Amino acid sequence: MDSYCVLYSTSYRTGLLSGFQRLRSEKKMCDVVLEAGGESFPCHRALLASSSDYFWALFGDATAERLAGSVSLPALTPQGLDAILDFLYSGWLSVSPPTLPGVLEAARYLQVETAVAICERFMTDGLSVDNCCFYANLAEHHALSDALDAANQTIAGEMRTLLEKHRNDLLGLNGQSLMAVFDADEVPGVREVELVKLALDWLDENGPLPFLKSNLLLSRLRFGLLAPSDLAGLGQARRAMATPLIRSQLTRALEYHQLGSAQPIRQSRQTTLRASPNRVVLVGGGASADWPEQQVLTFDPRSRKFSCLSCVLPLRLKGPCVCSVGGFLFVIGGEEVKEGDEDGKKSIAVTTSNQVWRYDPRFDSWEKVESMQERRAQFACCVVDDVIYAVGGRHTQPDADTHISLASVEFYDMDLGAWRRGATMPRPLYGHAAAALDNNIYVSGGLPGSQGVVQTNEPEEGRGSSKDFLSWDVEGRVWEKRASMSIARFSHRLAAAHGCLFALLGMYEPFCDIERYDPRSDRWTRLRPILTGSFNYGMASTASGNLLVFGGRRWSDGQEVIVRSALEYDTKTDRWREVCQLPRPLTGIECTLLPLPD
Predict the structure, then answer these.
(1) Whole-angstrom Cα distance, residue 121 to residue 287?
(2) SS3 assignment, position 59
(3) Which of 27, 243, 447, 541 is the most buried (most CB within 10 A)?
(4) Rounded distance, CA 181 to CA 160, Å?
């Protein structure tokens, strides 16, 4: 059998279309005329039928238009039809924001799906604060799901600007998009009361709607984020607010505000902030180890930018423990630092605190809650199942330069708003670290104390620091000793990530090594040292399992230096890198993750 080959010309199709386009422009061999808006468009029946399902059906064997010399298309604009005909004859689609509605209408009507897809891509790629509402309405009208989703996300992200400059566009938004925006978990820079007002204004502009539809819209609002004063009159604000469903949501929102200490453990979608993923909150710390700041910094791991909470910490605290539960920030214990005046000279007074302060980012406010049973400094805390545990520490004897070390453990019962006793540690301990993993609390290092009075403030050059590693099953309430660390550590950090625990360096350590504990094998493994040895830094474990280290102190040429670096440790690849710099040198920072509004 003789061999043969099949060859394909890439230029033939282009040349064929060019030929048809030339015949159309010269109005030669055209066998049908399309009419729209009083304008006529001579065309070739065969090309139309081969390019469009609509024309294939229109020119079928059993239709009246099969042999008609002209076809009227009153639903289309001349500009839209001309653009689609140019596309069918050349493969090029000319579209701009002003012509988009007509072109898209023609593409949909004539069932030219490729042109529809091009229009949808044009909308998605060109979304901005100025056109997102317009494109959302267009996408909803033509059932363009990808463009509609993208437009809705843009509206949610740009809501603050839209409320200020394009409110009329929002009032003309289709209901499906408005519901999608009210469903969004992130609406940066917008308070919920503004969304409620927008919803009510939209109902006035587009109503009256059946109660079923207004319920679908209003039930997506988060009434628990409104202050009680704003909730009080809402039930009578509009007829749509008086339905049983919406009134019940308003009632539950008011009840939530009356829960007091139990608010963090009674969270629901109605009370959850529309906020970006957890940010790092940096509490306390300062340019001096002895004079902490009251300003609270926040760090966004995505943008790597710092900002400040507008509401400062009520007290000047050194070394408190911080944690978050249910979207609330808790600042616990530590040492309260006050400026005094003794014999005409300025002095600093330091007292151990048992106070607990709770920050509510919904209303940017601090509230003092039930104090711990014992005053604690240099202690550790962690959260298990939304319960805060305070472990060990020490406190200063009133009017004496002596200290009591603590073995006690207490936990905060938010239902009762009270601290209760937990299982006591085997011995007093302070300067230790703690972390929670799989409903267990792990405690590492520290300085073991005695049941009596300890005279010194800190161990001299780390003397007496411990390698011990303990775990406590909060359900069994039993302390167990685990494999010891390879390094004795004091005033260090312990973090959980990817099912393991990571111990980072503390004070008076000659090396910068860190180590990882695997609870399944009960073994420690040495890891890559930190980039720059420091202590008294802040640390947070991100949602991805990476560790962020902020500021601290280190020795340089025999002098103590406060650092500005913010480092990130990848717990999977065992690698360190510097991600940015703090706004100013800080030491003594305490960190936790917290969802915050932009």
Answers:
(1) 52
(2) coil
(3) 447
(4) 12
pLDDT digits (tens, 9 = 90+) for 172-183: 999 999 999 999
Please name every residue paired with 350 in a beta bridge, in sequence order, or none if there are none: 337
Q: Among all chains, which residue has been given the structure tokens 């140019």?
A: 86
**Who has greater pLDDT, 121 or 14?**
121
Q: What is the pLDDT of residue 574?
A: 92
CATH number where 347 lies? 2.120.10.80
The token pair that represents 248 in the structure block? 């019940």
Q: Which residues pair with 548 in a beta bridge?
A: 540, 568
Could you give the residue ranges of the DSSP H alpha helices within 386-470? none
Number of H helices, E strands in the chain: 15, 37
| pLDDT band of 49, cuts 50, 70, 90 | confident
Say which DSSP state 118 is in: H
Tokens of 35: 């009419």
Alpha helices, DSSP H only, in 434-593? none
Only one residue has tokens 């939304």, namely: 386
Element holding 255 (H helix, E strand): helix 244-257
| Domain C-terminal end among 229, 258, 287 | 258
423 by Cβ neighbours in 10 Å (0-12 / 13-18 / 19+) ranks as middle
Do 233 and 311 belong to one domain?
no
Of residues 69 and 225, more confidently modeled: 225
The answer to whether residues 443 and 569 belong to one domain is yes
Could you tell me which residues are beta bridge partners of residue 332?
Answer: 321, 356
Measured CA angle at 84 (ends 79, 86), to 5 deg: 95
CB contact at 8 A, 449 and 429: yes
Q: What is the CA radius of gyration of the chain?
A: 34
Q: What's the average model confidence in pLDDT over 411-434? A: 94
Q: Specify the pLDDT at position 20.
A: 74
Cβ-Cβ contacts under 8 Å for 51 (sequence gap 6 or more):
88, 112
CA distance 102 to 107: 9
pTM for this predicted structure? 0.87
Cis ω for the linkage preceding 208 (within 30 of 0): yes
Nearest to 76 by CA among 40, 34, 119, 36: 36
Q: Which domain holds residue 198?
A: 191-258
Q: Coil, strand or helix: which one is 444?
A: strand
Residues 237 and 287 in one domain: no
DSSP state of 484: P
What are the CB-based long-range contacts (under 8 Å, 24+) for 203-211? 203/238, 203/240, 204/238, 205/171, 205/172, 206/171, 206/175, 207/240, 208/239, 209/240, 211/240, 211/243
Q: Whole-angstrom Cα distance, residue 230 to residue 223?
A: 9
Tokens (6 digits) for 185: 């978990």
Query: 277 or 395, which is more confident?
Result: 395
- Specify which residues 323 forms β-bridges with: 330
| Residue carrying structure tokens 């938010």 | 414
> In this structure, are 232 and 299 located in the same domain?
no
Count of other CB atoms within 10 angstroms of residue 62:
6
Identity at 341, one-letter amino acid code: D
Other Cβ atoms closer than 10 A to 442? 23
Q: Would residue 100 count as lying in a domain?
A: no
Mean pLDDT across 157-170: 95
The SS3 assignment for 579 reads strand
- pLDDT tens-digit map of 461-475: 456 889 999 999 988
pLDDT given for residue 100 in this prediction: 95
CA atoms within 13 A on the CB side of 175: 16
| DSSP codes of every residue in 556-583 | ETTEEEE--EEEEEETTTTEEEEEEE-S
